[in-house]
What does this fold into?
Amino acid sequence: MGKVIADLAASAASATFSVENATSSVNYVLSKTDGSANDHLKTDGSGNLAWVAAPAGGLTHFSQFRLTTTFTNDQDPITTNLVEVATPVGFGKLPSVAAGATGSMAVSSGVYTFPTTGLWLVQGNFTQIQPANGAGNDTYNLSTTIDHSSGPTWAIAAKTYMAGYYESSKSGSISYLFDVTDTAECKVRFGADVHIASTATQGDANENRTYFTFMKLADT
It folds into this structure.
């Protein structure tokens, strides 16, 4: 059976105790300072113990951006009329700070930047109407960049094909699990490459028609 030997001398800078068993012993050093309420005891792997705040649980970020105005033909990336969703009343987000503020997603010229590293689920939802004289496949994509050493190098990470026929309305979605390892280098943008002239990608200022969702699932 093991035993614990403690050295709690008042003059010591910290309390030291050893946990011994039949084959080995481990020395631990515990800081004399008390932690805050609900703190946990954490080791650095070398026997030094400290009080730290408990890790946050659950999702820490969820937000959406919507296209507010319909556009026709190609737009890759989609750069204009993008706002963070705030209506109708009751819409929720995490954290409750404005887009671009510390801790929230930001968008500039169609490029979305992340507030923190981690595993992020990125989704794009698109609604479009083909013109009266059009029929065929249109393409929407989600592209990422992870290399800014010599300028952004974009690669398509997800794509959806939307087939339509003469004034038909349709919708499609794409998603991608993005491991954001560096917030300065890992970014996202969305694009529309339509094959039928005057195809309309629908936007609306008051409801989600074409919109993009960002959700942080976990730290990496």
